Each structure stands twice: as structure tokens, then as C-alpha cells.
TrEMBL record:
It holds the Pfam family MarR_2. GO terms for molecular function: DNA binding; DNA-binding transcription factor activity. It comes from the Bacteria. Gene3D superfamilies: Winged helix-like DNA-binding domain superfamily/Winged helix DNA-binding domain. Residues 15-155 form the HTH marR-type domain. This is MarR family transcriptional regulator. The keyword Transcription regulation applies. Coiled coil: none annotated. InterPro entries: HTH_MarR-typ (IPR000835), WH-like_DNA-bd_sf (IPR036388), WH_DNA-bd_sf (IPR036390). Keywords: DNA-binding, Transcription, Transcription regulation.
């Protein structure tokens, strides 16, 4: 396959331009997060772990879950947790049955750091908020489809999304959630649902 980064290829091919554009947008997330992390003397992954813990249930805060979530090795996640514990942003709850295992909870100062750092995405949120509703729906449909295909290729390892959920079904191209007991329109599809349970 030709290189997307070769400008002759890129500028004569819409597919390549879209991929290059997605690359540019992913860089923006990294840059915004990095700027924020410098101001708080934290690394980007330390901030990401704090934000994840703030909004997910306690059983998703183990080293193995976090290493899958962030596609990082267990030692890297363990080091991240050790630093956050030293900074007193988290506390560990040791599993009584297996003292090598633990879950993590935010301390009050950890919660404060989340409040002060999670807004690093605001410039993008503002752009999306000002976009036409129909364009947003098309964009959302495309994003969910791309995520689903990346998961099928095993590039995105974890998904708490409707199509992988045991409560999800499709009938005549209508999506339905049996837990919420409602049809799911395009904008009801979730990519990170608290009630998600994997389809067996
Ligand atoms: S429980 Fe959540 S993830 Fe599962 S189908 Fe319903 S809305 Fe989607």
C-alpha cells in the first residue's frame, strides 16, 4: 500500500487525507494533555489513569484492567500507580484473598486534580458543540463504526460498547437495549457504558 504520508499520494486520495486528518486530531489530544500534565507535574498517563478511576467502577481499577484499557504493560501501570500513591492522589485497597492484588480509589486531592485537569479536551468539545446536529450524527455513526472495526482487528482491546454487550440486539436494522428497554437510535449508541456486560 502507498504511504499516506507521501504528500503526492495523500493529496490525490480522499481516503489518505482522512487518515492524515485523524492522525492530526490524535496529535491534538496528546498536545493538550501534555500541556496540562506539565502544569501539574504529572505525566499524561498519570492524568489519564486518575480521570479513568474517577468515572469507572472499582472493579475496573485493577492493574490488569488498567493495562488492557491503556494498552500498556502491567509494570508500567504499576509504576504509574506507585507514583500517584506517593503523591497521595490515590489509595489502594488490598484484596484480602490475594495480597498481591488491589483496587484503587481517588483521595480528595486526587478528585481535585481530576476536576482541574479533565478540561484539557475543552477546545475540541467546543468545536463539536458548534457543529450542525446532522453533521454530528453522521460523524458519530462513522466514529462508532471505525471503533468497532478497530476492535475486530484487535487494535482496540477493550470496548464497553453496545454492539459487544449482552443486552444489545438488532432486529430489522433496529438496535435495541434490553436493559434500558428501548430502541437505540444512532445517538443512543454508547462507547463506554456503565451497565455494559460482555456478550458471551
Ligand atoms: S447496557 Fe449499555 S452498552 Fe449494553 S446495550 Fe444497553 S446501552 Fe448499550
Amino acid at each position: 500500500m502507498e504511504s499516506v504520508y507521501n504528500l503526492k499520494n495523500q493529496n490525490s486520495n480522499l481516503d489518505y487525507k482522512i487518515v492524515a486528518g485523524l492522525d492530526r486530531i490524535s496529535q491534538v489530544f496528546k498536545t493538550l494533555l501534555l500541556d496540562k500534565s506539565k502544569s501539574y507535574n504529572l505525566s499524561p498517563i498519570q492524568i489519564q489513569v486518575l480521570i479513568f478511576i474517577a468515572y469507572h467502577s472499582i472493579e475496573k481499577t485493577t492493574v490488569s484492567y488498567l493495562s488492557n484499557e491503556f494498552n500498556l504493560t502491567k509494570p508500567t501501570i504499576s509504576d504509574t500507580i506507585k507514583t500517584l500513591e506517593q503523591k497521595k492522589y490515590i489509595k489502594k485497597h488490598i484484596d484480602q484473598k490475594d495480597t498481591r492484588s488491589y483496587t484503587i480509589e481517588l483521595t480528595e486531592s486526587g478528585k481535585q486534580i481530576v476536576l482541574e485537569t479533565e478540561n484539557f479536551v475543552n477546545p475540541l468539545t467546543e468545536i463539536i458543540s458548534n457543529t450542525d446536529q446532522n453533521d454530528k450524527l453522521v460523524l458519530w455513526q462513522n466514529i462508532t463504526t471505525i471503533i468497532q472495526q478497530l476492535n475486530e482487528l484487535k487494535i482496540i482491546s477493550i470496548q464497553r460498547t453496545c454492539v459487544k454487550c449482552k443486552f444489545y440486539s438488532e432486529n430489522n436494522k433496529e438496535s435495541f437495549c434490553s436493559l434500558l428497554n428501548q430502541n437505540l437510535k444512532n445517538d443512543n449508541i454508547r462507547i463506554d457504558c456503565e451497565e455494559f456486560e460482555i456478550k458471551k
